[in-house]
Amino acid sequence: MGIPGLDEMLGGGLPVGFSLVVVGPSGSGKTILATQFLAEGVRQGEPGVIAAFEKSPSQLLNNKLHALVKAGQVGVIDTRALDLSIDETLHDLIEMISRMQAKRVVIDSLSGFELALAPQFSDDFRGSLYRMIAQLTAMGVTILMIAELEDRYTDLRFSPYGSAFLTDAIIVQRYIEIVGQFKRVLSVVKVRGSEHSKDIRLFDITDEGIMIGETLSEYAGILSGRPTVSP
Predict the structure, then answer these.
(1) What residue stretches are annotated with the KaiC domain (predicted)?
(2) Those residues with Cβ within 8 angstroms of residue 185's Cβ, 6 or more apart along the chain or in another chain
(3) Closest CA to 69 of 92, 41, 49, 93
């Protein structure tokens, strides 16, 4: 995944051909995680493709991602046009994947994807998404999808649209408050067929990217947003 410690949390990394959804509130580091996933693919000789549904490429590209795109190692599909069909999007993705021999695909984000679809396609968004994931993973592509999900501390959800069942793996990022400060935490909720970590771990965003920290074993009620020290 390109993030020290995250492969271990996933039970050995993300298997080839799996689909992963990274869920979290705005600013929690989802796109940075996706960038490190793409950068690690390039380092291992696996080109990538990112489909930008919410931001223009100039807004989306941080320095690391911009360098990968400029070098021709990551392709960008700007899909902010409205009234798209699933078939058009899938055609553009498959065309770029085939041309670049890409092995990793990022979709940023599912909510932007749904908004970009014409009404007749958004009515069956879950079904359309399932078919697209199935076709891409059948090509041996590993998919990372970003999903915006506001923190509702009384409501434990892992994906919008009830689409969690569509994916092979789920990583959740959340904000919590500890001693009057907002902190970010990360947990692996699901990896199909894997003995993944059940830990909730702190993480920071630095100039180097996401750095995973310690577990919060001494705290109780972490997912309430305001954990307390365990007795």
Answers:
(1) 1-226
(2) 173, 174, 175, 176, 200, 201, 202, 203, 216, 222
(3) 49
List the end-to-end C-alpha distance of the chain, in Å, as a whole number.
36
Residue 205 lies in a domain: no
Q: DSSP per residue over 20-45, as a string?
A: EEEEE-TTSSHHHHHHHHHHHHHHTT
What residue type is 110 in one-letter code? L
Residue 14, number of CB atoms within 10 A of its CB: 23
Number of domains in the chain: 1
Is residue 152 in some structural domain?
yes
Q: What is the per-residue pLDDT across 49-93, written as a single tens digit (0 to 9) for each?
A: 998 876 655 555 567 888 899 999 999 987 655 566 777 888 888
| pTM of this structure | 0.88
- Burial string for 75-92 (b: 16+ CB within 10 Å, else e) reads bbbebeeeebebeebeeb
Tell me the backbone φ, ψ of residue 208, rounded to 5 degrees: -90, -5
Q: Which one, of 7, 4, 2, 20, lies nearest residue 190 by Cα?
A: 20
Find out whether 48 and 21 touch, Cβ atoms under 8 Å: no
CATH number of the domain to which 155 belongs: 3.40.50.300
